[in-house]
């Protein structure tokens, strides 16, 4: 998978896992496995979380994560584009590619 695919996958997992309360790496991993039928590596989660924090799409409180206001807006857009996880994931990947190109 590309970096953007991984980051969008982890973002989607955080969005779903933290709907009711902030989530930790275990919750992220569990939801990510449900989305992609693959368990993300610790490095995939760590790199993605760091990128998402820098882009202000998620917030960290101790070892728990939730969406920031910008992250909530992005997730809401993804939900408007598709009711299906794969459609949301594809939309998020495109948005993350666009965010990466803004600095290039």
Q: Which features characterize this protein?
A:
single chain, 104 residues, mainly alpha, 5 helices, 2 strands, globular
Low-confidence stretches: none
Q: How many β strands by DSSP? A: 2
Q: Which quaternary structure do these chains form?
A: single chain
Quick one: overall form? globular
User: What distance separates the N and C termini?
Assistant: 21 Å
- The helix tally amounts to 5
The overall pLDDT, averaged over residues, is: 94
User: What order do the SSEs take from the amino end to the carboxyl end, as H and E?
Assistant: HHHEEHH
What is the spatial order of strands in the main beta sheet? 1-2
Question: How many whole angstroms does the radius of gyration measure?
Answer: 12 Å
Helix content bin: 55-70%
Strand content: 5-15%
Q: What structural category arises from helix and sheet content?
A: mainly alpha
> For the report, how would you describe the main beta sheet?
2 strands, antiparallel
Give an overview in words:
The structure is a single chain. The chain has 104 residues and is mainly α. The protein has five helices and two strands. It has helices at residues 3-17, 25-36, 42-54, 69-81, 85-101; strands at residues 58-61, 64-67. A two-stranded antiparallel ribbon has the order 1-2. α1 crosses α2 (25-36) and α1 (3-17) crosses α3. The longest helix has 17 residues, at 85-101. The protein is globular. The chain starts with a helix and ends with a helix.
Summarize the structure.
This protein has helices spanning 3-17, 25-36, 42-54, 69-81, 85-101, and strands at 58-61, 64-67.
